[in-house]
């Protein structure tokens, strides 16, 4: 695998995004900070300061350098420790490419869960060849779309799954994979341990067999725990839980279970009424039930002082979770579909979001480049141009979509442009309480995390691989906030 610069600066209409390969995170910067980074990519800090006559400008550059240095952005001699992508056309109103692409690698599964977002499986489709997947990965790398989520179905049903992962790594992508865990053997666990993944998600839906097996099938809980005992000996992994009405009373026990089985993190996200879950909407908690479950997790983290858990809010579907980057990374509220992410089906169909149905398919990567689809397809342009409402003021063009999840709006309210019922609950709760109510996907660190790759020589470490810290407050030294993962897989 070729050695690559740890940082990639990707020009954007607002300035730039810097992708940090050591943490698999994007950090956005304004135009002025971007200009300084460009100059520091060619010359060390002393030279840049020496050629800057204006005293105020010198002070600004020094402040930016201190901020960048704290992020681990520099080599020993004070140069930007990265490369600048100069071969991209920068559109005036959206990103040069998605931050994350979710690739469905298989449309079959060895389970039949009652809440599966993938819908009824198997689907008989001609899946992309390895050559076509490799071409897609090359396009992603060119666009600066480095985050890759490998989904299904059950990805481990593919005998060539590690070849796909290796192809992604060869192109400099940061892959994650979600599995139900049943097919993990010692050989597979060792193969995972050899590779640097952002997330290796193993799904469970409860802290007890009774709760989990109610939605995943009889016997799955015990079998998965048995497989986790093998996996923990060879690779780091995450336990991924879906918050549903069936497990609301076990959420804190789920976090404790993750700690007990040796998971690196535990991820909690709400059930979305898509796929099979559209027929089982009784499983979906209300917004109030969801936030109360999260409050319980927060209390657990505060009370467990002997072995504290690190609580982080990174839900892309909350209009309040990205206040630093809102109107900077994209121009509408909350939803990243077609703005930050896209999905590619097993047969190559490209959709703004995997939660949206086939009627939103824009084109197929067999016939059209990812760049052409991202920039020019009618489906992507339409979802970016949908009218929206400011969730705080209630004002906006046609006073409609106010953040949240477009797919949830579609299923529960009949249109992707309708208000998301959850966000309507959230705004009402905030107005009653006078304070912001978060609707986060929550990540708990349940064991010590250490960097698996070294920071630049002479630079400050940026934190552990896969971490999701912030790069600074809006406007601070040119940083525009954090832009990490979107969901637990890319």
From TrEMBL:
PROSITE patterns: RADICAL_SAM (PS51918). Keywords: Iron, Iron-sulfur, Metal-binding, S-adenosyl-L-methionine. It holds the Pfam family SPASM. CDD domains: Radical_SAM. GO terms for molecular function: catalytic activity; iron-sulfur cluster binding; metal ion binding. Residues 95-307 form the Radical SAM core domain. This is Radical SAM domain-containing protein. It comes from Streptomyces sparsogenes DSM 40356. The lineage of its organism: Bacteria, Bacillati, Actinomycetota, Actinomycetes, Kitasatosporales.
